[in-house]
Structure formats: structure tokens, C-alpha cells
Amino acid sequence: MSFYRISYYPMRQNRFKHVYFFGRRGGGRKSTPEGNAAAILDKIAQSSKADENLSRARRTIRDLILCNQFDYFCTFTFNHEKVDRYNFAACKKKITEVFKNYKTRYSPDFRYLIVPEFHKDGGLHFHGLVRGLHPGSLTVPGQVYKRNRQNGKLELVPNTKGYADWSYYSKKLGFFSCSRIKDYEKCARYVSKYITKDLVNLALGQRVFMSSSNLNRPELVFDCDDVPRMFGHADFENEFVAVKESPDSLGILPDYWGEQCSELRDPLDGSGPLLEKDIFFPRLTGTQLSLYSFMKG
């Protein structure tokens, strides 16, 4: 018994993901050990589950980026006077409220995907992608927020380099910066790498990234049991599954996860270095913004 799934990525021309499973859907029934053996296997299972959740979250982020068009890669930090930047739940709630209100009031096409990261002192900020900022939202203010490296606080400093700012966010929560995306494929890998095992463990079953509900996902175009494998060489193969993608792919693993798939490797391993200068243009300035707007217009 085997089954075959094929997904299509609408934003990436001629990209298909072929996944051939060597076994039944959902895996077979396993015997239940007792005593110390059961405790040891339970710890192993918990560790495997964490690895599985980590890989699934990374793949989901990468799928969302590859299936949607975004304008900017952004960094969002929090002013301690406006929100407790050490409180994960509070920061998640505040930033999603700001995004929701902006979408409702100013831009129905606003879309986002953001991932948390922690400073060395435990403070939280987010990185991610946005699309649909309405014209005029990005401005060049006389002052911008900058974090003081000595005390970790955000401070207003002269905007001598003419950086663009999204004042709707910065006035409500804190520092904002953005850059245009240069390489979409590498950007997808780069953003997903912000999902770490520590973050997955910290979230304790919560969703570790936030995204708007109006994002496209890969389209499942084929899903059938007992069909022959329709490709030869696999990009990845083990005793449970074989995966093949179009030649320009970077090795995305299947969306379906049954018990027999828990040993699959992380799709981001061995994909080469990710250098920011190769992925993003320099931080957006007023001059760049004007040029970008002129090219789009």
C-alpha cells in the first residue's frame, strides 16, 4: 500500500512538489511498552515531536512565502513604555491588533507573515514580510527610533540617513525598518530559519508565527492511493517517503505528516549560506522609496 501527492505553487512558475509515501496513511498501530522502557520511549517521542513541529513550522512559513507576493522584509520591535517586550503573549496580541486595525481602516489588501526573535536580554521583536501598505504610509520622519545598546531602550534619534518609517506602527508600538526583497527563494529560507527549537518549546503548543488569513497556500492537485511512482531520482528519500521537485526547488518536504514521516530531515539543512546582502536590498530610504514608487507607477 502506498499513496502519492502532488502540490502546485501558483506564484512560482512550473513548480510542483511530488511526494510518494511507502506505506498506509497515518502509519500502523504500535505496541505499548511498560515500565522504564515506556518512560524512555516517551522522552524520545517528545523530542521527536518537537523536531517534527519545528520542521513543519519552517516548511509552512516557506510555503506561504513562495505562494504569495510580498513587498518588504521588515523588523518590528517594541517600546517598553507601550508593551512588555518580555511578554510573548502580550507582544503577539498587540502587533496582530495593530495589523488588523490597519487592514480594516486603510488597506483591505494588507498581508503579513511575521516570526518572533529574542534579544540577548530576553526582549522580543519580530521579523517578517508585508504587502499592501497604502500609498503614503511609508514616510521619512525627522527622527526615528533606535535601540540604545547600553540600556536596551528605544530612543528617538535624528534620521540623518533618511530611513523610511511606517508611522502607523512606530507611533503605537516601537521601532520599524524595512528592505525590499532581492531573492525570493533565499528570503523564504531566511525567514523560516528564525523558527528555532527553543522558540517551539517556549510557545508550548501555540502557533510560533503569525500571518494574515488571506494568504495563498500550495494547491493539492493530486492525491491518490496505490499508484506507481512517477519520477526516478528523488531529491530526498528514506524508507518512508520519496520527494521530488522542479529543478529550481530547494527541497521542500511534504505537508502531510503521519507517524511514518517523523524521521524526515529538516528541509533547510545543506542549502548553502544565507547572506543578507544577497537576499535584501539595503534598508529602505526615502530616495529608494521614491524610485520604487516611480517604477511601480
Structure explained in plain terms:
- It is a single chain.
- With 297 residues, this protein is an alpha+beta fold.
- Helices cover 29% and strands 23% of the residues.
- It has a domain at 72-189 and 284-296.
- A 5-stranded antiparallel sheet has the order 12-1-2-14-13, with no helix packed on it. The protein has a 5-stranded antiparallel sheet with strand order 10-3-5-4-11, with helices on both faces. A two-stranded antiparallel ribbon has the order 6-9.
- It is globular, with a radius of gyration of 22 Å.
Task: Write the topology of this structure.
Blueprint: E1 3-8, E2 16-21, H1 35-66, E3 72-76, H2 88-105, E4 111-118, E5 124-131, E6 138-139, E7 143-147, E8 154-158, E9 165-166, H3 167-170, E10 176-180, H4 184-192, H5 197-203, E11 210-211, E12 219-225, E13 236-237, E14 241-245, H6 276-279, H7 286-296
Antiparallel strand pairs: 1-2, 1-12, 2-14, 3-5, 3-10, 4-5, 4-11, 6-9, 7-8, 13-14
Helix pairs in contact: 1-4
